[in-house]
Design goal:
The chain is built from 20 helices and 15 strands. Helix 7 crosses helix 13. With 544 residues, the chain is α/β, with parallel strands linked by helices. It has three domains: 113 residues; 221 residues, Aminoglycoside 3'-phosphotransferase, Chain: A, domain 2, CATH 3.90.1200; 193 residues, Rossmann fold (3-Layer(aba) Sandwich). The chain is elongated. The chain starts with 5 loop residues before the first helix and ends with a helix. A hairpin with a 3-residue loop joins strand 1 and strand 2. It has a six-stranded antiparallel sheet with strand order 1-2-3-6-4-5, sandwiched between helices. A five-stranded parallel sheet has the order 12-13-11-14-15, sandwiched between helices.
Amino acid sequence: MKAENQSDTNRQTLILSALRNPDFYPHPVSTIQVEETHISRVFLTGDFVYKIKKPVDFGFLDFSTLEKRRHYCKQEISLNRRLSKEVYLEVVAITREGTGYTLNGSGEPVEYAVKMQQLPRERTMLELLRRGELSPGMLKGLGQVMTRFYQTAERGVKIDKMGSREMIWVNIEEDFVQTSPFVPAILERVKFSEMHRKVRTFLDEKRELFDRRRETGCIRDCHGDLRLGHIYFVDTIQIIDCIEFNDRFRYGDVASDLAFLAMDLDYTGFPDVAQNLLTAYARLADDPEIFLVLDFYKCYRAHVRCKVECLRHRSGDLQEREARVTKARAQSYFELAYRYADNFAIQTIWIVCGLSGSGKSTIAAELATRLNVRWHNSDVVRKKLFGLSPEESVVVPFGQSIYGPAATEQTYEQLLLEAKKDLSRGRSVIVDGTFGKLPHRKLACNLAVEMGVNIIFIECRCGLTLLRQRLTEREEEKSVSDARLQHLEEQNRAFETLNELPESLHLSINTDQPTNQSVLEIFSKAYVLGTQQGDARRKRAGGS
């Protein structure tokens, strides 16, 4: 932060003193409440709020001159009117009048303030959650508001650029540079380095995913600071305090914007609310892949909050108790960011299973494309083992020839050996097979434990009529699978239900819906399962 000269400091002190005086305002004021962040001071007078910007320059934010503060006051009003109505009223000048100051007087402007309607604090999303008064209908309404906002928010070449992998890299690296001075006094050195490495690795490995987000219109002029305390449920939903001081922090993936709110919900102890909101948004916006980048952006957002608290701690104008609280908040956000990084860095074995004709190979192929990982199909592996090409048909009675018990054991052993090779290279993997026998599922679970990775069984199901239809259609088309309608009854009898699997490893998907809906359901539910497995793994290791 650039230092102010003595005269500027004295003038700021006098201006602040004036703003604390009820007689300063042109409307009745009985009490004044003052709130402060690292970049602004807010004066709550009862009916109206006056917000002034501190004369600071943090590099990513520059309020160092009066003209710049005036400009960003105007920006704040213009941008925040997108998600609020009749809240942001005007920019008012604080003018010098003789030896004192007044609002919008005829003298020289010495400061500017944003004038707002004061909203009732008890109607923030945070306070409603704390009192248990946030209803499902209110949450649904918020999802609809955010979906409409993102669908109509500005986009274009300049904004798309901000959602590129290269620009995300710039933002991430900037945060690590700016928080590095607080290592190790506030932030733990080893975790800081590990988190930095995991973030860089994710950006390297998910290049196609980030490109796809940009190509499909997910990069928009967003809010940038979507937190629980900025969302009010009054006559209508009012959302305030977006980022006005740096377009780069507002332009980006809608997933990054929503991740801020989801992170805030996690931080305050409401992860289920975050999950419900994100799932509702994903359905409304038809955006299943938001869950693939969610932990990455949550990590980024938690790290940003950590940085803000670190900068606040360094300001030197805090009382001892407030300094301790600020340091503790910085460390809490840092631990949360580290947890998210650990979650998105862990590999996963995706076991796509179910009866023949249940749609598992269709789902596996779709997941392989979206996740950009290898897909191992049991039918292909089986035929390769016995010197056959995948297209060669071997339709035999159930459980005979290459589908006999011994051949099936060899197939599953080889299938999981192929998966292990991918895991050894640091890649997640999709394994597609019936997995109708308990021993085969145990083999897969043992592999996950051995490799220290997550495992998720996606059990594909559909109605018997559709199952019969799909198997009948195979009679008329080339298919790598030799399963036919004649095998269905015996396979169904031999299939051992997945009752032994805990809920944290197993999800069931109905595949008689469109594939995209199935994928959305998988990614939404798998996100929760992955988080549960990560928490359990850290608990076993004695971590946070």
